[in-house]
Predict the 3D structure of the following.
Amino acid sequence: MSDNILKIRDLSVNYQTDRGKLKALRNIDLDISRGSIVGVVGESGCGKSTLITSIIRQLDANADIPNGSIEFEKQDLLKLSLDKMRNISGTQLSIVFQDPMSTLNPVLSIGRQMIDIQYRDKTSKKIKKQRSIDMLNKVGIPDPQSQLKQYPHELSGGMQQRVSIAMALQAGPSLLIADEPTTALDATLEVQILKLLKELQVEMGCSILFVSHHLGVIAELCDHVIVMYAGEIVEQGSTYEIFNNPAHPYTVKLLECDPASISKKQRLLPSIPGEIPDLTNLSGGCIFKNRCDQSIDRCDKQTPKWNEFSNNHYVSCHLIES
């Protein structure tokens, strides 16, 4: 992709545990082009959350990054001081979390919180308040001036998430990270939030990194999809290619497990046999080999290389190597 706003190269993240070094991410390469919406999908434990916390520099104390770079707007975030990183967070780079109640302070009014997060701006409180009203109006909050006086618990879950999105977008970030922002909402509210994100992304021209395990949400919102498994990216391409022409056995099985793809009533939901490998004791070769029904001898011994399966559709699998 050209004109990348975010470029991650060879990123690895380890966690020190009682059982040894857990290799949560290994040699991640990821690009987000300006104005695009990129989705990251995979099972729980695939490394989605570690990827996000690496970007915003909020990794746990027992984590370390042995190699890699995270280039955002032409500067490597991993080399910035904490002060410089704080200046970027919440302004050029914002995040919306899964649960709005973990984002919003329950003892402060919505208006107080929206004004307080503008602390870097030296303009008057009156201007900050009007900016907050305008932003709440953009995310579809009715009577936004009155809502500034409300506390989070006085709003519904959908309204709370709209406020969280408003706060994240208030400074006009060039990249918004959305960490499963619709998981805590019912289906109707989920559709509304997705529609809202699409509209705001077009209006404000920002890029979005959208992380989810919900395949239907990814298909609805994103332009490009990254498929992760056990700390590695195994496939990436346009949303159309990933959903209509999946190449990696893991992606194929993941799509088969999507309840939306089940046409006949059945007692048990489909699942992928086996378990995610022990990331403290990796044996080499293909990371998916023990759960793959198409594995060959080479899968045990050699790590697969990246191959272009079709136009801008890349897969890490021995089965499609040229």
Summary: Residues 187-204 form the longest helix (18 residues). The radius of gyration is 21 Å. The longest strand covers residues 4-17. The chain has twelve helices and twelve strands.
